[in-house]
Amino acid sequence: MTVHPARRRPANPWRRGPVWIACSLAAALTAVAVGVTPARAATLPAASGSPSDVLAGMSLAQRVGQLFMVGTPASEASTATLTAISSDHVGNVMLTGRSNAGTAATRRVSDRLQAQVSAASTAGVPLFVATDQEGGQVQVLSGPGFSAIPSALVQGTWASWTLRAAAQTWGGQLRAAGVNADLGPVVDTVPSPAAARNNPPIGWYDREFGYTPATVGAHGVPFVQGLAQAGVSAAAKHFPGLGRVTANTDTTSGVTDRTTTRGDAYLTPFAAAVNAGSPFVMISTAIYSRIDPSQPAAFSPTVITTLLRGDLHFHGVVISDDLGNARQVAAWSPADRAVRFLAAGGDMGLTVNPAVLPQMYNAVLARASTNAVFRNQVNAAALRVLTTKQHLAPPGGTTGLPYPGYIDHVLQRGSTDAAQVKVLQTRLTQVWYDVHGVDGVFGSATDSAVRAYQSVPARHLTADGVVGPATGTSLGIWR
């Protein structure tokens, strides 16, 4: 997306400004009510059942559409993007560029996009609408109703509770604009101020929270949590890290990280964001020569499936960095980019350029129609997208998702504080652990879910089924 820096810097490639429209699959599963304004709602076609039921009721073409996010200018709903929703069933949109028109004007753009949702286009499932609202030189939306957000480097000097509260405020502003997701935080680590001067994508624009993985992780988590408390989903980026490259993937080809390894300390901020419940992780298009030297990370099963899904136990939506205009992937056709990303284990291909969407969409649909293995991957990815949408607060509804509240004493099997057990069960469900119903009973299903959560090595917890300060803090629900 275009940045207008106050001082001379390399041309900034971030021409996108993601804004995810306020949506709730939970509402879509019954009788979806989309908030057109705080005082008035438009009823969308009903889709009844669980995310699996919604998926079963979708055509293959509609399932494929859920796997793309397409750009539109933040100031208007472009004809190309509206067509992508109505004709190619696209289920997600990103507001790009810059707009200083404020929350009310942005809400009108969001509503115009959401109005394309129908039984024919998306099976009645509302859109994700996203924007890059990181702060500093990467803030797509400004004007009346939006705060001037400081850079991540400044945010990294704040106490965690201060950043969490600020992120909740910024998230509330996005929600008022019809936005329910932010393509942030950046949890890439730049090694030093000197290195930042030679790091065009991150350090040059002060997009890093600090210069150590510990500092970055400690500030990425409250950013994720604050957005969640406002009902806005976060996307931790750019896995497995752009803090040690010397060129920008949006404007340069052959960008390669020759340092990062599997198990690298620079992956810990991503693990922290995953543990905090970040619904999305964005995959870089750089090449990581010590992990998979053969292809960009967005096309690599090793990066997506082995590292992110396996080592970090991420069960949410894997979204790509831009596959539409980025020079890093220009050697591949748009069709091949989309197919390779999904085949590697990705879930949502991002293109800031709607003109290439038909090529991508048609290639994925054709492959899924003829290849059973790929079709299964498409179905699994679509289910992850639908499940993530279900976890969002409904438009105009109460905030606080995915954080349902807090606990203030130890819980374990047999605990009788039903209210606090429900908080625990809700949080476990939201980070993809099955408790067989939020009923306030700490029985065998909840005990198994707690132990499974505690068993992930990266969390450094004791798998004893006891939810005390360590496990509660990891889940983000310990007061």
Compact overview of the structure:
By secondary structure, the protein is of the alpha/beta class.
Task: Report on the architecture of this protein.
The chain is of the alpha/beta class and 479 residues long. It has two domains: 25-390, Glycoside hydrolase, family 3, N-terminal domain (TIM Barrel, Alpha-Beta Barrel), CATH 3.20.20; 418-475, Muramoyl-pentapeptide Carboxypeptidase, domain 1, CATH 1.10.101. Helices cover 37% and strands 12% of the residues. It contains 18 helices and 15 strands. It has helices at 25-29, 51-56, 60-65, 79-88, 103-114, 119-122, 152-155, 160-176, 193-196, 213-229, 268-275, 301-311, 334-343, 357-370, 372-390, 418-430, 444-454, 469-475; strands at 33-37, 40-43, 68-73, 92-96, 128-131, 133-135, 138-139, 181-182, 233-239, 256-257, 280-283, 287-288, 292-296, 317-320, 349-351. It has an eight-stranded parallel sheet. Strands 10-12-13 form a three-stranded mixed sheet, with no helix packed on it. A two-stranded antiparallel sheet has the order 1-2. The two termini are 38 Å apart.
